[in-house]
Specification:
The complex is a heterohexamer. By secondary structure, chain C is α+β, with helices and mostly antiparallel strands. Helix content of chain C is 35%, strand content 24%. Chain D is mainly alpha-helical. The complex binds flavin mononucleotide (3 copies), riboflavin, iron/sulfur cluster (SF4) (4 copies) and FE2/S2 (inorganic) cluster (FES).
Chain lengths: 442, 195, 192, 190, 337, 298
């Protein structure tokens, strides 16, 4: 029996078209737009002005407050403006727009491709380097990684988990990264283990990536503290609470964080970024992005500089198919639909999915028939149908009591509902309202 | 409010059954046929009118704190009078209505009217109110009884107009609830249209 | 409407006056209706007896006698014409009804033949079991003039001679049981 | 065995609300929420048992010996009304917690015909003291069961898309009717 | 940039994919699962089966359409198929020789009172088909308890004789204080009952056909095993205990399982999503409740068959069950190890 | 007198006396005092239970009024000054006159003026859209046209105009309860002073983008050009974040700014027609209250 989380989950068609395609480097764009808020938390403060010349890797935004992150220039060139620009949040936010000329890097970055396995720095130094490099979680939420690594007083981390699940259909960026940068990833992971002083590391990979499992298992043999686990293919296996449950049997308490059960989870991409930051002094200025979709000519995995507009990636993948009806930043289950392709790649962009017109519209919804399918697929043990109705009827005290805030927004409920009900839309609204109410209470 | 309006308000606008939802037990319990409903309605009307009379007459002599007990005694007396009289002169109807005759005493409309209306109004107004409300109550009972009798036995006021039986369910307990539910819906629609 | 302050004294007085008035009135009404009520009750009983027996001249109610049976009692009302027994009305019962007890009055001639039968009380379903009532259907006329000695009082399904009420075998069967109980008791010493 | 029959009969077969039509007003009125339904049932249970006990004693030791059984209605209702008031005082003194839970429902009970109805019924049925009390308790349980089911269904219906015209009391009656229809299945088990 | 896309692009909240499931598909699945029983019905009771079913389905559809369109003034949604399921299940629970006007009346009550009064699909607390059936059963006990004898394979279709259902025969017999052995002589063997050779409603008789439908429903994941299995298990357990204690008074559990609407009710009616609990635990409580009530009514009640009441009564408990048996929330009780 | 009559009288009278005694003691024990004035105040209040006063329902507000020392900050928008004066008279306090208010919608980006750039296909709720993205036009400030405000209005004082996709407020019905203001996730609706004959002048836009950018997606946006600001003689116009705002307390309804605005973002409502026609003004449609100039589409 493969490990998995015990309750709920769905199995949408995997459609991993780009899994066999090597990561390719995308040519530099003409201009990049680098938002100062690519992470959860306070936006960074700009450290450059219009007209400044910047080098690749240079700091252009300084973190502000505890939960925040540094922003670096991903190219070298001239700052055209520091102004609001549309980003993947769907709104305009302060960004640094840079006109690219040559690709000049700041000197401290080690640009060689040598593998540096030996760990020479201390734990605190590691965390400092991660902070400096502006690393955020690359598994989706873009939560500043150094915050995750500062274990609060009174808590202890004893297991570190590397999240190589990539349970979203279509996306393959983590998969390719594991195949091509396996060594680096595990070094990065061990760096985090050292920083957190953890003796046990677990790598979880879904069973639909057997090549990645065998590759990483083989590399991991040299590190006795690491173990690779194949996992059952079931969405949302990659959700951290589900992954922790599957791998360790521990259950993050309602409203709690992984650290409450002594676990911290990091994504594959994050581990790679940590390797770059610590061993190569390289800040987070590029990442792997999958461009895919049913009608996309060349589904690909690109290594792109942060700030590159999405349409450039789409062009490189063969152009936008004429019948495209929806553009999704991320996977089909949790990704965010965009109204424009003139949006830059950010640290959290894992893929671009182009959905054909005929699959892009929702079917009309019907009354709930109380089939309980939404209940049975909810990995958090919630009652989505009830939460939706309660939100519609504005009975927010019950929305709160029925644990709407525990919803991880995985979308399994909306996916499965035979009556096509927009369950997650309303649950999000319910969470938002309950959040407001709780804030007002204080 | 004119006395006419005072009299007719119980028919639709403030019908104790369809609008105020008071005194529902006898409504359901005694309406297996139109005639039974009518008997019950008239008995209640009598008690309602008479107790309104007495209450409106003596209201000024009753201290506040014993208002309710005094009213209850007065109402109960009239109920007993009805009970005894019916037993003596209409024993068949008395048997058909059974337990619900003594229960007039706890029928919420009777006490409700005494408390809310007669204790604040003059003699004449109270009499008219009691009588009107009683007739409204009777009307409701006859309607419910009629519908149940038509559907359940295929007759009205005992006159059969179909062969065989009707839908027995309507003479039984569930039918009472269901028919009353739909009647209330219709009356509410009627009321909101007329208002 | 707190027109009147409540003090212990005026509360006591007021309630006393009200209860006194009410009880006096009731007492009198009771006096008045007592006779008619008793008369109505008697009339109903005599009515039932008259329904099931040939003409008589005595007051069977005053000559009642009882017989304990099956944890309950049967009542016998001997009817006499010119001091001669013309028949006995037996108030009998069954607990096998579809929804509880059924009470019937069976009029037996001195030889044990059924003169007539009437239902006193039952809770059977309207439209089904209540067809045993004379006014609902003429099912009950089957019993008229039959002598259980040579007429098997039980439903045809059980091998008897009685046609059951449609879809109400249970009620019919119970009814037969009650009639038989009266007949048997009468024959085994109930005849006086 | 006799008691069991009384109990089953009063709860399921001859449920006072669904089959005997007693206590319909609170059944419709106080059944919006499960919580209040439970409170109301508790209060009814308390009063019903007590009332049946006291009225039984009055019937056998006062009304019957004096030959004034025709005064049943008036005496019973007065006794019940005073009893409810007294329970209120006593409860408040003895168990404030219970008073908190049942207090608001007590005044409603005076005009609940189920209490008087059950008191009279237990005399009509020729029950002895214990049987009467068991009958009262079981009737109250039947009331509670009906009220509990009913209120939970109504809570669910609050979230449903009921047609405008049916909302509120009409739908409540339809539910009661269907509930009564379902309970007819118990016909004849005792 | 967008010249190549010829329409406005769509933006919506996630998720952007949907499973293939739909209300119609579920309802169609139930109908498919009912086909074997339908075939056996035709074999046993003749073409009347087809006609009664047809009348019920058509009148359910018409009533649903008319009420939605003209009384509720809503967009009619007859296409979702739930009315067809209601019609078929209502028909399956009726005797084949029932007058048409009763079928139509039953459909009216099922759809009108049982479903549309509450606002239509998804809102009704009681199972509509059973509301219709119990209404007919109580209102017209004569017609509803007059059963045609099954023709069996190969006999001609015309000679309908009325025959009681096995449960009816037992109830009669026990009332007559006959012993179980003599009663059983009037009843067909279990093997014959298994494929439906007995008196009864047109869709309830063939255990095998219904079981095939059950397997189909489970395979298609339309229902879970919880409700049907607990109902049948409870019936078997309690009738088994009674049978062991007093074999002269009680029929065997096999008999109880095969007769009456037990299987039809357990598989197709108790599982109606709208009127059954939503968590496995709740479903088990629900099933046990139905089983118990069924046995009590069959053994002690006035009616020979209890499952229709059992389901309706437990329908009333569903909101209560749902509010006390919530799914286990993730992270509710923390056990670490 | 016979014995039955005697017993009847004795037993009932005795019971009556006992009942009276019990009740007397109860009355002594339970003096639950509820200020009777609460009921009276509640009767005065309009019982709309809309929450416009800031309390859950009319009865709660009545309780607050009875307890309050002064009526500062206490106001029932539905009943208005009249009701407050009545309540004040009843309670012997002084009511504070509050200028009546009315809601206005500060967005005029109709379908015509603000082209749709994408198609929103999700649950029909303004807050859901607002939390997701800019909406089906590119204006991040504008109305998303799903009518959450209309649903919130208990007084049927609003409706969605099918043609423009914007909510419309029916002045006569609006009681200024503020429910719509609360409901709108984009804070488009504002409560303003209600002038004579319901006249009002306001900037029907809340767009804070720079003029050039805003004009790209909306023809009737406030570009922040400050022309109105310059022309206003009463200092009623405040410029902030590329946006003009007219203070309804200071505005004297002179209408100078209205003609000044190059994008027609300033609306005048319920004014008589102007005598001198401005050349750019298109003929206002029949019964149209808003005088809008046709903006040349760029
Ligand atoms: C407000 C907030 C505070 C958090 N604080 C911590 C923390 O103190 N320690 C930690 O390990 N993770 C912390 N996290 C990170 C979460 O555990 C989680 O990894 C992050 O939200 C991304 O998870 P996701 O991609 O599954 O959404 C925090 C997250 C949020 C949103
Ligand atoms: C429904 C759901 C699915 C997720 N799937 C993945 C996944 O497939 N791979 C992944 O790395 N993170 C996934 N995440 C994010 C993880 O929960 C978690 O935030 C992440 O692994 C933490 O690592 P990071 O901080 O390095 O991003 C998912 C989160 C959710 C809520
Ligand atoms: C609501 C209802 C009430 C019934 N009432 C009675 C009744 O009062 N008496 C009776 O014998 N059968 C009654 N029955 C019928 C029995 O259930 C059963 O069908 C019948 O006694 C046996 O049928 P048979 O008489 O055709 O053999 C009733 C049935 C129903 C559904
Ligand atoms: C598994 C399943 C079982 C169903 N069973 C019934 C049923 O017993 N009676 C019925 O009227 N409808 C049934 N339906 C149809 C539908 O759910 C029903 O009409 C709703 O109760 C109407 O709101 C069933 C549907 C499904 C999917
Ligand atoms: S309720 Fe939330 S956690 Fe549960 S299935 Fe729906 S989106 Fe996922
Ligand atoms: S999956 Fe859809 S239809 Fe089924 S219970 Fe949930 S919301 Fe209702
Ligand atoms: S328009 Fe707004 S302020 Fe006016 S009444 Fe409606 S919700 Fe209240
Ligand atoms: S004004 Fe606000 S609430 Fe009203 S439709 Fe526009 S966005 Fe929605
Ligand atoms: S409770 Fe029975 S009439 Fe009100």
């Amino acid at each position: 029996m493969l490990k998995s989380f015990p309750r709920g989950g769905v199995h949408p068609a995997e459609n991993k078209f780009s899994a066999g395609n090597q990561i390719t480097k995308l040519p530099l764009p003409k201009t990049v737009t680098i938002p100062l808020s690519q992470h959860i938390g306070t936006p960074a403060e700009p450290t450059v002005q219009r007209g400044d010349m910047v080098k690749t890797g240079q700091l252009i935004g300084k973190y502000k407050g505890f939960v925040s992150s540094n922003i670096h220039s991903s190219v070298s060139g001239k700052v055209l403006k520091v102004d609001k620009a549309l980003d993947s949040s769907g709104y305009k936010r302060t960004s640094v727009v840079i006109e690219v000329n040559e690709d000049i890097w700041i000197t401290k970055i080690d640009r060689s491709s040598d593998l540096r396995k030996e760990i020479t720095v201390s734990g605190d130094e590691i965390i400092n380097k991660i902070l400096d490099a502006g690393i955020v979680g690359m598994g989706g939420a873009a939560f500043p990684s150094h915050v995750k690594m500062s274990v609060p007083k009174g808590k202890k981390c004893d297991i570190l988990i590397l999240n190589g699940v990539e349970c979203e259909p279509y996306l393959t960026s983590d998969h390719r990264l594991m195949l091509e940068k396996g060594e680096e990833i595990l070094v990065g992971f061990r760096l985090v283990m050292k920083a957190l002083n953890v003796k046990k590391g677990m790598v979880g990979i879904e069973n639909n990536k057997p090549d990645a499992i065998s590759h990483l298992s083989q590399i991991a043999q040299q590190y006795p503290e690491l173990e690779v686990f194949p996992l059952k293919v079931k969405y949302p296996q990659g959700g951290e609470k589900q992954l922790i449950k599957a791998l360790t049997g521990r259950e993050v308490p309602s409203g709690g964080l992984p650290i409450d059960v002594g676990v911290v989870v990091h994504n594959i991409g994050t581990a790679y970024a940590v390797y770059d930051a610590v061993q190569k002094n390289k800040p987070l200025i590029e990442r792997v992005v999958t461009v895919t979709g049913n009608d996309v000519k060349k589904p690909s995995n690109f290594l792109v500089r942060i700030g590159t507009p999405l349409n450039q990636l789409v062009e490189a993948a063969g152009g936008i198919p004429a019948q495209t009806g929806k553009i999704v930043n991320g996977g089909p289950m949790m990704g965010k639909a965009m109204n424009s392709l003139e949006v830059p790649v950010t640290k959290g962009t894992s893929g671009i999915l182009l959905i054909p017109e005929k699959e892009s519209k929702r079917k009309p919804f019907r009354p709930c028939i109380r089939c309980a399918k939404c209940i049975s697929v909810c990995p958090m043990g919630l009652e989505p149908f009830l939460l939706m109705t309660l939100t519609e009827k504005e009975i927010f005290d019950r929305v709160e009591k029925d644990k709407a805030l525990d919803c991880i927004e995985c979308g399994s409920c909306s996916y499965i509902c035979p009556a096509n009900r927009p369950l997650l839309d309303y649950i999000r609204l319910g969470k938002f309202r309950v959040g407001q109410i709780i804030r007002n209470r204080k | 409010m004119s006395q006419l309006k005072n009299f007719t308000k119980g028919f639709v606008q403030e019908n104790p059954v369809f609008v105020l939802f008071l005194g529902l037990c006898p409504v359901l319990g005694t309406t297996t046929s139109a005639i039974n409903g009518m008997g019950m309605g008239l008995a209640t009307t009598f008690v309602l009118t008479m107790s309104n009379v007495i209450v409106s007459l003596i209201k000024n002599f009753i201290p506040d704190k014993v208002r309710i007990p005094s009213f209850i005694v007065i109402i109960a007396s009239f109920v007993t009078i009805v009970e005894l009289t019916m037993q003596a002169f209409t024993p068949v109807l008395f048997d058909a209505l059974g337990l619900f005759i003594p229960l007039i005493v706890v029928n919420c409309i009777v006490l409700g009217r005494a408390e809310a209306f007669a204790s604040k109004n003059t003699f004449l107004t109270s009499v008219i109110d009691g009588f009107g409300m009683g007739l409204g109550f009777t009307l409701a009972l006859v309607m419910l009884g009629g519908v149940r009798e038509i559907l359940g036995s295929g007759s009205l006021f005992g006159i059969k107009f179909i062969q065989g039986d009707g839908m027995i369910l309507f003479v039984l307990a569930p039918g009472a609830f269901i028919v009353l539910g739909y009647l209330i819906m219709l009356m509410q629609k009627l009321k909101s249209k007329s208002a | 409407m707190a027109k009147k302050e409540s003090t212990l004294i005026n509360m006591l007085v007021a309630l006393f006056v009200v209860t006194f008035g009410a009880s006096t009135a009731l007492g009198f009404i009771y006096q008045i209706t007592k006779e008619p009520i008793a008369a109505a009750k008697l009339a109903r009983k005599l009515d039932a007896i008259q329904n099931v027996l040939p003409e008589f001249t005595n007051n069977p109610n005053s000559e009642t006698y009882k017989m304990p049976i099956d944890g309950d009692t049967l009542r016998f009302y001997p009817a006499k014409k010119d001091n001669e027994l013309v028949g006995t009305a037996v108030e009998t019962f069954t607990k096998q009804g579809f929804s509880g007890e059924i009470k019937i009055m069976v009029g037996l001639l001195p030889d044990g033949a059924i003169y007539n039968v009437a239902v006193l009380e039952h809770k059977e379903t309207p439209g089904l079991g209540d067809k045993m009532e004379r006014k609902k259907s003429d099912w009950i006329t089957q019993f008229e003039g039959k002598n259980p000695k040579d007429f098997n009082i039980s439903v045809k399904k059980d091998g008897g001679d009685i046609d059951a009420i449609t879809a109400s075998t249970i009620s019919s069967r119970a009814f037969c049981e009650a009639v038989n109980r009266a007949y048997n008791a009468y024959m085994e010493g109930g005849k006086k | 065995m006799e008691y069991i029959i009384i109990i089953i009969s009063a709860i399921f077969v001859n449920n006072i609300v669904l089959m005997k039509f007693l206590g319909i007003c609170p059944f419709i009125g106080v059944s919006n929420k499960v919580e209040t339904a439970i409170g109301m049932s508790g209060a009814v249970m308390f009063v019903m048992v007590l009332a049946t006990l006291v009225t039984y004693l009055i019937q056998t030791f006062v009304l019957e010996p004096l030959g004034i059984t025709f005064m049943q209605t008036i005496i019973f209702i007065l006794v019940i009304a005073s009893l409810v008031q007294m329970v209120e005082i006593v409860l408040k003194k003895i168990s404030p917690a219970l008073f908190q839970a049942l207090g608001i429902f007590l005044p409603l009970i005076t005009t609940n015909c189920a209490v008087l109805g059950v008191a009279i019924l237990s005399i009509q049925n020729d029950y002895n003291l214990i049987e009467g009390v068991v009958f009262a308790a079981a009737s109250a349980l039947g009331f509670g069961l009906a009220l509990l089911l009913f209120s939970s269904i109504r809570e669910q219906l609050d979230l449903a898309e009921i047609p405008e015209a049916m909302k509120g009391v009409p739908i409540a009656f339809i539910v009661a009717g269907l509930l009564a229809m379902a309970f007819m299945g118990f016909t004849g088990i005792v | 940039m967008y010249e190549k896309i010829n329409k406005l692009i769509t933006v919506s909240p996630s998720p952007h994919v949907h499973s293939a499931g739909s209300t119609q598909k579920l309802m169609t699945g139930v109908l498919i699962a009912l086909i074997p029983a339908f075939v056996i019905g035709i074999i046993m009771f003749g073409w009347g089966t087809l006609i009664v079913t047809g009348v019920a389905v058509i009148s359910c559809l018409v009533f649903e359409y008319v009420i939605q369109k003209y009384l509720l003034k809503k967009e009619p949604s007859v296409t979702d198929g739930s009315a067809v399921v209601t019609g078929v299940l209502l028909a399956f629970s009726l005797p084949v020789n029932i007058p048409f006007w009763l079928v139509i009346l039953g459909s009216l009550v099922a759809i009108g009172v049982g479903k549309m009064t509450f606002g239509g699909l998804g809102n009704n607390p009681f199972n509509p088909a059973l509301v219709g059936r119990v209404f007919l059963f109580i209102s017209f006990p004569v017609q509803l308890t007059t059963w045609p004898a099954p023709k069996g394979f190969g006999t001609s279709l015309t000679d309908a004789i009325t025959g009681a259902t096995p449960l009816g025969i037992i109830k009669e017999g026990l009332r007559n204080s006959d012993s179980m052995d003599t009663i059983m002589q009037n009843i067909r063997s279990s093997k014959e009952m298994l494929y439906g050779h007995m008196g009864g409603s047109l869709g309830e008789v063939a255990a095998i056909a219904l079981a095939i439908g059950f397997i189909y429903l489970i395979m298609k994941k339309i229902i879970t095993w919880h409700i049907p299995i607990t109902i049948l298990g409870t019936i078997a357990l309690f009738t088994g205990i009674m049978w062991l204690i007093e074999p002269t008074q009680n029929a065997s559990p096999v008999f109880h399982l095969l007769t009456g609407g037990a299987i039809l009710g357990a598989i197709f009616m108790a599982t109606d999503y709208v009127t059954s609990p939503m968590t496995p635990k709740g479903m088990i409580i629900f099933g046990v409740g139905i089983g118990l009530i069924t046995v009590v009514i069959r053994r002690f009640g006035a009616y020979p068959e209890g499952i229709q009441f059992g389901i309706l009564i437990m329908n009333a408990f569903v909101p209560l069950i749902n509010s006390y048996f919530k799914p286990k929330r993730f992270g509710e009780e923390v056990k670490n190890g | 007198m016979n014995s039955v009559l005697l017993f009847t009288i004795i037993s009932l009278s005795l019971l009556g006396l006992i009942a009276a005694l019990i009740l007397y003691f109860i009355a002594q024990k339970f003096k639950v005092y509820e200020d009777p004035r609460i009921d009276k105040v509640e009767d005065i209040l309009p019982s709309a239970n809309c929450g416009g006063c800031g309390f859950p329902g009319c009865r709660n507000f009545a309780e607050v009024l009875v307890k309050a020392d002064t009526f500062d900050d206490l106001f029932c928008p539905v009943g208005g000054n009249e009701v407050m004066a009545q309540a004040a008279a009843l309670l012997g306090k002084e009511a504070i006159e509050v200028d009546p208010k009315v809601a206005v919608v500060r967005c005029s980006g109709s379908f015509e003026h603000r082209p749709r750039t994408n198609f929103y296909d999700g649950a029909s709720n303004c807050t859901i859209v607002h939390n997701l993205y800019t909406g089906d036009t590119d204006c991040p400030f504008g109305c998303v046209s799903l009518g959450e405000c209309v649903d919130a209005c208990d007084f049927e004082a609003m409706y969605m105009d099918e043609k423009t996709g914007l909510p419309v407020i029916i002045d006569e019905k609006c009681v200024a309860c503020g429910a719509c203001v609360e409901a709108c996730p984009r804070d488009i609706i504002e409560l303003r002073k209600r002038n004579k004959k319901d006249r009002k002048i306001f900037v029907s836009c809340i767009n804070e983008d720079k003029g050039g950018i805003a004009k790209q997606y909306c023809a009737v946006t406030c570009t922040g050009c400050t022309k109105c600001f310059k022309v206003c003689e009463y200092d009623a116009i405040i410029m902030n974040n590329n946006l003009a705002f007219i203070d309804s307390e200071k505005c004297k309804l002179c209408r100078k700014c209205v003609t000044e605005c190059p994008t027609n973002a300033i609306h005048e409502i319920n004014f008589p027609p102007r005598r001198i026609k401005i050349e750019t003004e298109a003929k206002p449609g029949e019964g149209e209250q808003i005088s809008t100039k046709k903006v040349s589409n760029n």
